[in-house]
Here is the input.
Amino acid sequence: MEVQEVELQMLQREPSRLESLLGPDFYRMLKGLFTNPLSLMGLSLLAVFLVIAVAAPVLAPPRPNSNPYQIPRDGYSPNPKPPGSDWRTRQPPLPFWWEPITHKDHWVHIMGTASGQWDIYYGVVWGTRTAFKVGLIITLSVATLGIFIGSISAYYGGVIDMVLMRITDIFMTFPFLLAALTLSAILTPVMGKSLIPPSIALIMFGWMGYARLIRSDILSVKEREYVLAAKVLGATDRRILLKHILPNAIYPTMVVASMDMGSYVLSFAALSFLGVGAEVGYADWGQLISFARDWITDLGTYWYIVVYPGMALVLFVLAWNLVGDALRDILDPRLRGRK
Amino acid sequence: MFNYIVRRLLMIPLLLFGVTVLIFLMLQFLGPTQRSALYIRDIPRNERVLEGVIRKYGLDQPFYVQYWRWLVGVKDPTTGEREGGILFGNFGYSRTASEPVIDIIKRRFPATLELALWSVLPVILGGVILGVLSAVNHNKLIDQVARVFSILGWSFPTFVFGLLMLMIFYAQLHWFPPGRISDWANAVIRSPEFHNYTHLITVDAILNGRWDIFWDALKHLILPIVTLSYLNWALLLRVTRSSMLEVLRQEYITTARAKGLSERTVIMRHALPNALMPVVTIGGMMVVGLLNGVVITETVFNYPGMGKAAADAALNLDVVTVLGLTLFSGVLLIVANLVVDVMYAYIDPRVRLE
Here is the structure.
């Protein structure tokens, strides 16, 4: 009785202007995200990272005429230097905010240096861009690939479905990280050391979950009357799939994919930690942390190699997971309408 | 039940075929020269000799011919010995370790198995207990703390967590060293008086009555176990919690409470067994995953298992070795998944009737 009344009230309620602009589902999602404290924390963390990524040239100005993603180094000594030590050779340009705040006229290694004198602060700041870039590209490609395979499988059914789903099973048989590691090791000699081989490897062994998800959603949408109507009207397969089925089935897969962005950044960092990522000295958190592997017995002294890039990575992934966790609660139909 | 097992068994050859084809496809990225490491230990530098090798093993033949030879090997016409052939356990030769890949697996697999076996209990018990606590105290402080704790564990990269552990417990406190065993203990293990029954050091130490060695091996295992546990608790906690919450809403729970049972009995006897159903699946998958998901953990803690071997080989771009290890892991996963599925079908009749 009570439930019906509430529902009736919701139906009668005038939607706000924002709500009518965004559509009820999207509005509900955004509202949920901005009212849950944990997801708000995640969103603010993401905002901070976004600012760092955008402002990278101001926070850590690169040397003129050099690749900004290449971390500047201060000599070649193998021993790391602690935070606060002076920059000796080939200082990069000072940012405008440096002198007013610190009253120093020269650069300092704010977070210390790793072995080989790579500046950790530069790596952390520019690594934020790498993290966003890698996360976005992998998530988009992996979801697209999964959606492509899953929708073909579901729409055509029969033998095609059987074959594609068995191929999916085969890909799922492999342990994810080991398979990705293998493929990056194979692609690296062919394509050269860069961000691309590990990204391709993660995409190739990551799409299966999305293919299965979209397949089951399409299978349920496929039987609706409006699809039948489109068929009767003589629409082509492509048109039915793209115009009528996909828009109604794609939503859950996209949400799941966006929530996985954190874990892709994490897997990518793991691969570069293992040494199959970009060239040494590229601004990438996983690789910065891998410098610590040479100093296992001295980690007490050289803690800053792990702690600063590690903190950046953990907070970045945490931010996505906080948002993702809240999204899952909002979109879970069993929990819908409860406070 | 019988039908289900048969159906499940029929899938196996198909999966094995698919896995081998996929691995072989990846091998095609290598040139014929590098691929000769599948059959011979040292790749000859002399071009004429090399050509002979390529012709002998058919490395310039079409895909299906090569695939078949890769499976069953090539008989040497003069000696009659079989060379290569993954069906006979010949995974090729490691360029970096200059030994057969199968020997690496034989040596490294017990180490990985030991770590996985030791981690099973803490991982599953910890995750389930936390999940039950969280669900029983739904939305109370314990629940919130457990959730934050688990989401943090979920966000922590294995290698960062592992390095932090090493920083505190090894570099600062000197409690738990990396590696698998201390040098003095290693000398004992290699001595003729010590019998290596299982090659799992902790088990062998007990069988030999050497508690000092058992303790030394365990000390090396503790940090990897803690790392694997904490990072896996998040998922188990989440599954147990939501499944437990669902069960606690059922009417038979209300009935149990109404007839005056203590809350403890209600939870332990009536709720938990039913709530554990989905946990069994995830738990099984996790045990399987432990065997293979240890690449990073082993690398961080310098633990000489298969994962570390794969990481080292990948770093040196020794593709034949990495692919051999991946193939072995894939086959292992297929078998392990079968066992988990059959066990699950035994517990939950809904699965086998599907």
